[in-house]
Sequence to fold (284 residues):
Amino acid sequence: MGLFSMLSPRFSIPRFCQRLCLGLTVVSILAGAQLFGLPVWAASLADIEARGQLIVAVKENWRPLGFRTQNGQLRGLEISLARRLAEELLGNPEAVTFQPVSNLDRLRVVADGEVDLAIAGITATESRTRVVSFSSPYYLDGVTFVTLETELQNLKDLESSTLALLDGSSTLAALRYFLPTAQLVGVASYTEGKAQLEAGEANAFAGDSSVLAGWVQEFPQYRLLPFQLSVEPLCVAMPKGLQYDELRRRVREAIDRWMAEGWLLDQALYWGLPVPDDRRSSNE
Fold:
């Protein structure tokens, strides 16, 4: 009995040929992509070791997480973390290639295999776990406030204040819950928010601690209020799939160890990120 006579009547010769041609086409595309150095899928740990370089998506305009100095060098908490991971995985903190990325592309470049990891101010959320996997948190971000007014000290002082925040920001939910009597003013940018404060049209600006820490570093006449309204874990984004199990395990174990040893807390303090007093005292 010939091959084609053994096939189901629904599996006709033309359809079989079409599927065979499709399979050959896919193989050809993948081979061509590899030939010309195009990304086909994210690299496993073995692939990264063979390459000798860890490719990491980072921010270059988010002081103090990831930013460029005046001479163009990348610095910040997340840059230090990427170098430490390169040392952990490859034995060399310089064996890392940084790929600056926009907020909109942070998850896509991981899912599409353009980078091995993304360390770019990414908050782990349930919806995002459908796209990528996450490490343990390396920093706990959250909503806080920056102000010029010395009389503002605690949450109660803000109850009758005018608070500026970015339009469409997730900060809005926290403000409505904790400060329902405050007057909220939406602005289109941080520059507009700063103008509101300097004109006396707002008493404080609400936003993520990681962003406002950079604000204060750039404009030291401002100060951060010493509390947060929420806890938002910043995590390393990693590719999904069984072939990346070893990479994910090594990254998670390293971050857990560095958190327990206090290295991550020291880094947060070094880069000027706000840290709750109870975490400071536990590390002393």
Remarks:
- The CA atoms of residues 108 and 131 lie 8 Å apart.
- The first strand starts at residue 54 and ends at 58.
- The chain has a mean pLDDT of 86.
